[in-house]
Specification:
CATH superfamily of one domain: MetI-like
Helix content: over 70%
Shape: globular
Strand content: under 5%
CATH topology of one domain: MetI-like fold
Oligomer: single chain
Number of helices: 13
């Protein structure tokens, strides 16, 4: 890093990192203060930590249900995204057809389309799907719609990332396996997927991080409070805290939302960096 980045860029990166760490620490300390301390002494340590703020944030806006919904929706969408993206990226990398390049470019272009530009057609499409299933089976769950849209919006990045990663893997191993009689599906499942594990983990974690804090699509597609995701529950907590003036509880809700992602990133940060470095090595 020291040889590739100029001192000015390194200083900017460290400034950005330090500012984010300080902001997180400030929010964590503020979550343990009373409302009077939040406004009266915003930059001092809490006089007496108020742990009930977390209990209040968890129970007032049903953040427990929101946490469960977010875990199920994000995990389902992220796993589905990787299951679909891995064979697609492998085929684009190894097929050697004329359409492989344009298709890869097509997915790269898909990353640049803002979700705001698709929100109206997505809403109409999901409404039609919901009405169709309700008419046919008398049941539909909007969390399924949200998961499907999450998969569709996450696929371009996952395919683009995994395509770059599969290009770094040597072809000699596949050629040797083919000489031993292994078919394409067996080579992919038993040889290439284990080799691509760092890239798969990186794509999975980055997908989880991007979906965990997503709010716009959730607000558009989910109206039942029992199906709210964690960011929606946090918005409900914000509206509630405006009337109760429990600002420490609001900051405790923010910590509840961001802490799982920070914990997962710290746990798998080495794998993420390995995957991104290997993917960019060629």
């Amino acid at each position: 890093m020291g040889k590739t980045l100029s001192p000015l860029v390194r200083a900017f990166v460290w400034l950005w990192v330090v500012s984010n760490v300080l902001l997180f620490v400030w929010i964590a300390f503020t979550s343990l203060k009373s409302s009077g301390e939040v406004f009266g002494s915003p930059f001092k340590l809490p006089a007496s930590p108020r742990w009930p703020n977390y209990e209040s944030a968890w129970s007032v806006s049903e953040m427990g249900q929101g946490f469960f919904n977010s875990v199920v929706i994000v995990t389902t969408a992220s796993v589905t995204t990787i299951v679909l993206a891995a064979p697609t990226a492998y085929m684009l990398t190894r097929s050697g057809t004329r359409t492989a390049g344009p298709l890869t470019t097509f997915f790269a272009v898909g990353m640049g389309i803002p979700i705001q530009a698709m929100i109206v057609p997505v809403f109409i499409l999901m409404q039609k799907i919901s009405m169709t299933f309700n008419d046919a089976f008398g049941w539909w769950d909007d969390r399924i719609s949200l998961s499907a849209i999450y998969v569709a919006t996450s696929l371009p990045f996952a395919i683009f990332l995994l395509t770059s990663f599969f290009r770094t893997l040597p072809t000699e191993i596949e050629e040797a396996a083919a000489l031993d009689g292994a078919g394409g599906a067996r080579i992919f499942a038993q040889i290439m997927l284990p080799l691509a594990q760092p890239g798969l983990i990186t794509a999975f974690i980055l997908t989880v991080i991007s979906l965990w804090n997503e709010t716009l699509l959730a607000l558009m597609l989910i109206t039942d409070t029992e199906q709210y995701t964690l960011p929606q529950a946090l918005l409900g907590l914000y509206q509630t805290m405006q009337y109760t003036s429990n600002w420490g509880g609001l900051f405790a809700g923010v910590i509840i939302v961001i802490l799982p992602i920070i914990a997962v990133y710290i746990w798998l940060s080495r794998r993420i960096m390995e995957g991104m470095t290997l993917g960019a090595g060629k």
